[in-house]
Each structure stands twice: as C-alpha cells, then as structure tokens.
Amino acid sequence: MRRIAALILFAGGLAGCGLTPFSHDGVDTVTTGSITPAATPQPVQAEPPAPTVVGSLAQSDWESIRTLAANRLADAPNGDALDWTNPDTGNEGTIAALADTRSRTGGLSCRPIALTVSDVRGVRRYHGHACRSVDGSWQLFDMSADDKALL
C-alpha cells in the first residue's frame, strides 16, 4: 500500500512540473521554425462554363426557329427542309422533321428535328425535338450540336 501511495505522489510530482494551471507566464512562445507554417490558401480558378446550344445562338434566332416550327412543322413531310431567316441577325438555316409526331409525357406532341444554322462562324448542325403543348404553343427540347467544337 505504501508503494502505491509513493508511486502516486511521485507521478503527481512529475506531472506538476509540466502543468501551469493558473499562469501562462512560464510558457515559451518563441517560434523556432521547426514546424513549417501552413500554406496560404490560393483562390481556385474556376473554369469558364462550357458553351451551350442555347447560348450559341441569339435569342431572336431561337424565336425565328420556334415560330417556323409553330407555323409549318406540324404538317411538314419527314425530311423536308423548311427555311428560316432572322432579319435581325442575318442568320438563316433549315429545320427538318425526321419522323412522325409522337406523344410524350405532359401532353406534348413531339417530332425529332434536324436544324442547321448559317452565320458568320459557318454552318452548324443541331438535333433535338420540336414539341407542341396542349395549348398549341411550340418549344424546342433536347437540342444538341452535332459538332460540339462549333458551339
């Protein structure tokens, strides 16, 4: 029992040498350089967003294409190219239905289409769906470029 008490006193005495519970006066605050400081975080350079089909044309071009689809695409035979022109931008192209109209969810009647755009950058080809909603309005869906390098 005496040995255990002596061991506890001895261990407590050693621990007391390293503890300063009420004062920080004896704490060494000198920096020696033995630990490398953390690197300053650098801002991450965000990559610019990838170009999109929608962003590759002026909004008025898309409106010209949509208007043509609304007026003539429903009755156009498969494969017939319908010409569109936008006098505001000078851009032009064709839209052609590739297959018959099919019903989709949400009451949409859709035709797969091929679209060409001719502008100052050259001729580009797109494909997607032209869909008529229950109220008769037309929208373009799932448009993607045949050659992504030309976006």
TrEMBL record:
InterPro entries: Anti_2. Coiled coil: none annotated. Residues 1-17 form the signal peptide. The keyword Signal applies. Keywords: Signal. The keyword Chaperone does not apply. It comes from the Bacteria. It holds the Pfam family 17kDa_Anti_2. Residues 57-142 form the Surface antigen domain. This is Outer membrane surface antigen. It comes from Kaistia soli DSM 19436.
